[in-house]
Specification:
The complex is a heterodimer. Chain A is mainly β. Helix content of chain A is 0%, strand content 51%. In chain A, strands 2, 4, 5, 6, 9, 10 and 11 form a 7-stranded mixed beta sheet that branches. A 4-stranded antiparallel beta sheet of chain A has the order 1-3-8-7, with no helix packed on it. In chain A, a hairpin with a 6-residue loop joins strand 4 and strand 5. Chain A starts with a strand and ends with a strand. Helices cover 0% and strands 54% of the residues of chain B. Chain B is built from no helices and 11 strands. Chain B has strands spanning 4-6, 11-14, 19-25, 32-38, 45-50, 54-58, 61-66, 71-76, 85-92, 100-101, 105-110. In chain B, the strands form 2 sheets. In chain B, strands 2, 4, 5, 9, 10 and 11 form a 6-stranded mixed beta sheet that branches. In chain B, strands 1-3-8-7-6 form a 5-stranded antiparallel beta sheet, with no helix packed on it. Classes of the chains: A mainly beta, B mainly beta. The interface between A and B is medium-sized, with 20 and 20 residues.
Chain lengths: 118, 111
């Protein structure tokens, strides 16, 4: 159980275009999902907390107008990188908690999306 | 600022030996601690979590927590080449959903 699916796994786009990344909880409902970014040889940095049915909570320094998060259902959150630039190239990873389980404190991670902006 | 610190390594351990990974945290309000393993180019996978002072064992892995010293460790017994990865320590507070990650320790098991 507690499987989180993330799509796509790899995307290459031109500078100035937008890219949408999907994060799905396959076998549980996730009222809260998290979006992280990881640059090479660095740790995971939380970008935002995605809340079903309400606005996401962004971490300090993360541009909410650039990284649009939508959590329209209990099993799907999307991250859209708008007007992407080469400096946005990174590994984006989502995670979710299964609040209905006995391990609600554990975050399960998607496989990640490697974004390359040319 | 809440921080979780780890020695970045690399840490090299002979196959079959015990690998010891360490982590310290600055926020005394931290209650839950997690060890994740991350292979190159992959996302983190949970190895163990621990809340209470003392040791917690799961197969070849043992997590140790000392809240007085604000110290968490992970021991890997009978190390295997497949254990070669980056190990991330993370902490969170009860009631706060966020995880704060350390920078990770790169472990290499030498055959």
């Amino acid at each position: 159980g507690a499987v989180v699916s993330q799509h796509p796994s790899w995307v290459i786009c031109k500078s100035g275009t937008s890219v949408k990344i999907e994060c799905r909880s396959l076998d549980f409902q996730a009222t809260t999902m998290f979006w992280y970014r990881q640059f090479p040889k660095q740790s995971l940095m939380l970008m935002a907390t995605s809340n079903e049915g309400s606005k996401a909570t962004y971490e300090q320094g993360v541009e909410k107008d650039k990284f649009l998060i939508n959590h329209a259902s209990l099993t799907l959150s999307t991250l859209t990188v708008t007007s992407a630039h080469p400096e946005d190239s990174s590994f984006y990873i989502c995670s979710a908690r299964d609040w209905a389980s006995g391990a609600a404190h554990i975050q399960y991670f998607g496989a990640g999306t490697r974004l390359s902006v040319l | 600022q809440k921080e979780v610190e780890q020695n970045s390594g690399p840490l090299s351990v002979p196959e079959g030996a015990i690998a010891s990974l360490n982590c310290t945290y600055s926020d005394r309000g931290s209650q839950s601690f997690f060890w994740y393993r991350q292979y190159s180019g992959k996302s983190p996978e949970l190895i163990m979590f621990i809340y209470s002072n003392g040791d917690k064992e799961d197969g070849r892995f043992t997590a140790q927590l000392n809240k007085a010293s604000q110290y968490v460790s992970l021991l890997i017994r009978d190390s295997q080449p497949s254990d070669s990865a980056t190990y991330l320590c993370a902490a969170s507070n009860f009631g706060n959903e966020k995880l704060t990650f350390g920078t990770g320790t790169r472990l290499t098991i030498i055959p």
